[in-house]
Specification:
Elements (H helix, E strand, L loop, with lengths): L8 E6 L2 E6 L2 E10 L2 E6 L2 E10 L2 E6 L2 E6 L16 E3 L4 E6 L6 E2 L4 E7 L2 E6 L4 E6 L6 E2 L4 E7 L1
Antiparallel strand pairs: 1-2, 2-3, 3-4, 4-5, 5-6, 6-7, 8-15, 9-11, 9-14, 10-13, 11-12, 13-15
Length: about 160
């Protein structure tokens, strides 16, 4: 899942790497993931990216952009990759550089709430739905750990 769009990806082992099929289009791929560093070739296009895994979420840093993806395993469904109800957590370790909403503020889905700097990139945490920012559990300058509860959020 990327934002509200879900894609089904089929992956099959091939002689050298994998055959990947998305939306009826196939390509061959091979590569290597070492901790967070991904080096891969997709049908002749070589990429170098960083990948951070945080629960169901995958943060892909590629070409100066950050893509937040959610892995959905149809055989394992404890959550749906949309985040927890009642609070917002740090998707990765980093430092809080800005708080953009006020305690008690009523916000719409997608409203920016705070900015977390991680891996030299700024990541904006947004409201998962319409609701109220009950409280912040962090301040500007705080170092936070992956999965740390940052905002108490009450959905409408």
């Amino acid at each position: 899942r990327y934002a509200d769009e879900e894609k089904s990806i089929q992956v099959r082992y091939a002689k050298q790497g994998y055959e990947i099929k998305i939306d009826g289009l196939s390509t061959t791929a091979y590569g290597r993931l070492d901790k967070t560093s991904l080096r891969a070739d997709f049908g002749g296009r070589r990429i170098s990216a960083e990948v951070i895994v945080a629960g169901e979420k995958r943060y892909l840093f590629l070409d100066g952009l950050c893509w937040q993806l959610s892995a959905i395993d149809p055989l394992y469904v404890p959550g749906d990759g949309r985040g927890s109800d009642g609070g917002l957590t740090a998707p990765m370790p980093g430092r809080i550089i800005a708080i953009l909403a006020s305690k008690g503020a009523k916000v719409e889905k997608g409203a920016p709430l705070l900015i977390l700097e991680a891996m030299k990139m700024e990541n904006t945490l947004t409201a998962p739905c319409s609701g109220t920012v009950a409280d912040f559990r962090c301040e500007v300058g705080d170092q936070v750990k992956d999965g740390m509860e940052l905002i108490d959020f009450v959905a409408d």
